Amino acid sequence: MKLVGKIALVSGAGSGIGRAISVTLAQQGTMVVVTDIDEAKAKQTATEIVGMGFKAIGIAMNVCDSQQITSVQTTLAQQNMLPHIIVNNAGWTTNQSFIKNPPDLWDRLIDINLMGVIRVTRAFLDPMTQNGQGGTIVNVSSDAGRVGSSGESVYAAAKGGVIAFSKSLARELARYKINVNCVCPGPTDTALLRTTPEKFQEALLNAIPLKKFADPMDIANAVAFFAAPESAYVTGQVISVSGGLTMVG
Prior knowledge:
Layout: E1 7-10, H1 16-27, E2 31-36, H2 39-51, E3 55-60, H3 66-78, E4 85-88, H4 103-130, E5 135-140, H5 144-147, H6 153-173, E6 178-185, H7 191-194, H8 198-207, H9 216-227, E7 238-241
Parallel strand pairs: 1-2, 1-4, 2-3, 4-5, 5-6, 6-7
Helix pairs in contact: 1-9, 3-4, 4-6
């Protein structure tokens, strides 16, 4: 239990990768603030964690709603539960050729995948910089942001922005003993992946050297590494968890 006494906030944690991250951090001893746009899912994940004998609460938080994010921050501050660890996991995509994208889709993809990370980080940053204890920020990007992805051009642009934001923020926040790192999942076995056409899934699977999709726990383990004391000297780094699909130097 490497993270006993720590509080972690995870966005988009009602299911999939976010749920796996929440469970993994709870198992390491953190009190997990499970947030999701769907309050029922957030509370369900938190209830499951408590049922395992660990600590968690579930709260509704839409990463596109600055007022709601601020409200969550205020509520946690009043309860002396401001996070030491922030995991920006919330994201969304759809597969469609860029030439067919309506402009409102661009806005939605950027608002969720890039601006959501920026909003949540900024809302919780002041206490983290002022307490003198430092902290950890782990941003979940995507290999699409490292090498591109057909049918996800604007999503890839947003996730590439998350990578650049993470590196820049790592430089700015080092003086406050705050580490910022980035995890880039490859194709992961989630409900979102299973909504894609079967032929698309087969093509992805054939391209992965390890010949299997990531389990959400594979991503969670990488996040847990960046949150753990063992990575205290690691900041501004990007790691792909993709079964070898991408090998970026």
